[in-house]
Design brief:
Shape: elongated
Structural class: alpha+beta
Number of strands: 12
CATH class of the largest domain: Alpha Beta
Oligomer: single chain
Mean pLDDT: 88
CATH architecture of the largest domain: 2-Layer Sandwich
Order of helices and strands: HEEHHHHEEEHHEHHEEHEEEHE
Helix content: 40-55%
CATH topology of the largest domain: Alpha-Beta Plaits
Distance between the termini: 103 Å
Low-confidence stretches: 5-13
Strand order of the largest sheet: 2-1-5-4-3
CATH superfamily of the largest domain: Reverse transcriptase/Diguanylate cyclase domain
């Protein structure tokens, strides 16, 4: 075989490899005209190499992030160095539909992109090569794992029945609020809430109705609070509320809104309508509370006073 024949065979193998490789290869001149377009790009774009040849890439794909991609290409051409971007920075460059059956849950193909300079015989950059990698499987798996971890984190701090913070998470927030008060001197209040005669509700109407009462109470607490307030469930029919940046007057106003809203609600049941009332104890944080638990005990003392005074009322600790 002559040297010319050998070169021709080598070129044929190279072209065959470029056409069959499972990555996208796009060669552009410095005016962004397509000079090469391999089989991967044909299959996923629906455009043949002959159709795109010598046409401007951004005319062919108006949805491309033009300003971003031009900036990347210009950097590669100017510095004569390769650049890389991952799907985590930009999920895709070419908006190709995801065609992998295993990862069919993803609408589009996630991509990594490498942009490489192509030099002429004089060493200057004449063209650039875009290498497009389909990383949908990896991206989909990582996103699923992250979502699972986020869900586990939410479950670890959330009371499943009500969606409020669970007791451990809520008490951690209370500790943080206590520390914040002594660092910055901002107002803060804590409220403890108890559903009146909840055992009687369970005994008379059944535990399913009792669960409905708990859910209605949790819903009302959430609706009547501000965005910065932190409600939690202690367990059973007991709830706690952290009220940052709140003095006694403000805390009383918020808690009265909750109490009044619940007192006006009636839950229908076969054994008779259920009236929901709550008793609430409030403690505004002062230096008299030597630690977080003392602050909580002050709210508990106020709650006890509310119950002793006839229930369905709010008492502020003093």
């Amino acid at each position: 075989m002559s040297s010319e024949d050998a070169d021709l065979h080598a070129f044929h193998w190279l072209v065959d490899m470029v056409e069959s490789v499972e990555v996208g290869l796009v060669v552009l001149d410095l005016d962004h005209r397509v000079q090469a377009w391999n089989g991967f790009m044909e299959n996923h774009s629906g455009l043949t190499a002959s159709r795109v040849h010598n046409r401007n890439l951004f005319d062919l794909f108006p949805e491309l992030p033009k300003a971003w991609l031009v900036r990347k290409i210009n950097t590669v051409a100017t510095l004569n160095t390769r650049t890389f971007t991952s799907w985590e920075q930009r999920p895709w460059v070419f908006r190709f539909r995801n065609t992998r059956p295993v990862t069919g849950i993803e609408e589009y193909m996630f991509q990594n992109l490498t942009i490489s300079p192509l030099n002429g015989t004089d060493g200057s950059v004449e063209k650039v090569c875009l290498t497009v990698y389909d990383v949908t499987d990896m991206a989909s798996s990582k996103r699923a794992l992250e979502q699972a971890n986020e869900q586990l984190l939410r479950l670890s701090v959330t009371d499943r029945a009500t969606g409020l913070f669970n007791r451990v998470a809520w008490e951690n927030l209370l500790d943080a609020e206590y520390e914040r008060y002594f660092r910055y001197g901002h107002h803060a209040a804590v409220a403890l809430l108890d559903i009146d005669h909840f055992k009687t509700i369970n005994d008379t109407h059944g535990h399913l109705r009792g669960d409905e009462v708990i859910l209605k109470t949790a819903q009302t607490i959430r609706e009547k609070l501000r965005q910065a307030d932190r409600p939690g469930r202690f367990g059973g029919d007991e709830f706690g509320i952290i009220l940052p940046e709140t003095d006694a007057k403000g805390a009383l106003c918020i808690c009265e809104r909750i109490r009044d809203s619940l007192a006006q609600f009636s839950l229908d049941a076969p054994s008779g309508a259920i009236q929901i009332t709550v008793s609430i104890g409030v403690a505004v944080l002062t230096e008299s509370a030597q630690n977080c638990q003392q602050w909580l005990k002050q709210a508990d003392s106020a709650l006890y006073q509310a119950k002793e005074a006839g229930r369905n009322q709010v008492v502020v600790y003093s």
